[in-house]
Amino acid sequence: MDRGTAYTQSLAQRDQINAQVQMQEISLKRQLAEIQRELAVLDYANQRNISLDKVKAELAKSTMQLNTQKELAGMVDPNKVHQVAPTGMEPAGRAPNGEAFQK
Fold first, then answer.
1. How far apart are alpha carbons 5 and 1 in whole angstroms?
2. Chain center to CA of 39
3. What are the Cα distances from residue 93, in Å, to 41, 48, 96?
4. 76 CB contacts (<8 Å, ≥6 apart)?
5. Cα 7 to chain center, whole Å?
6. For the segment 33-72, what is each residue's pLDDT rounded down to a tens digit?
7. Helix H segments across the chain?
8. Which residues make Cβ contacts (< 8 Å) with residue 59, sequence separation at least 6?
9. What is the mean pLDDT of the chain?
10. Which end of the chain, N or C, is more open, meaning fewer C-beta atoms within 10 Å of its C-beta?
11. pLDDT tens, 3-30?
12. Cα–Cα dist 60/86, whole Å
């Protein structure tokens, strides 16, 4: 076997090992993120003296609301301005169409 072939094979082996290390690192980071999320949920439950099931239900409800808003926002005509959810900061009444920023 000549030196060029041996060198090429060693580079290929090194690249393969590096790829395996990177995949393991990604897997470990994903597991760490899941553990951190679970700890945050437990901390939230402990701070508010509520059960873990109730926290999960609140998170699921919030997720559904946000997903609904995102879906509704994607369904509107991009050339028109639509309000997905009320802000609670607007005065009573409604400005004429096209004059929302002036009044």
1. 7
2. 17
3. 40, 38, 10
4. 82
5. 43
6. 999 998 998 888 888 888 878 888 888 999 999 888 888 8
7. 3-48, 52-75
8. 41
9. 81
10. N
11. 889 999 999 999 999 999 999 999 999 9
12. 21
Cα radius of gyration rounded to whole Å, the chain: 27
Q: The tokens of 32 are what?
A: 């760490």
Q: Is 91 helix (H, G, I), strand (E, B) or coil?
A: coil
* Nearest Cα to Cα of residue 67 among 85, 45, 44, 41: 85
Residue carrying the six token digits 């939230």 = 44
Looking at residue 84, what is its pLDDT? 54
Name the 3-class secondary structure at 14: helix
C-alpha–C-alpha distance, residues 60 and 65, integer Å: 9
Q: Which residue has the tokens 């060029």?
A: 4
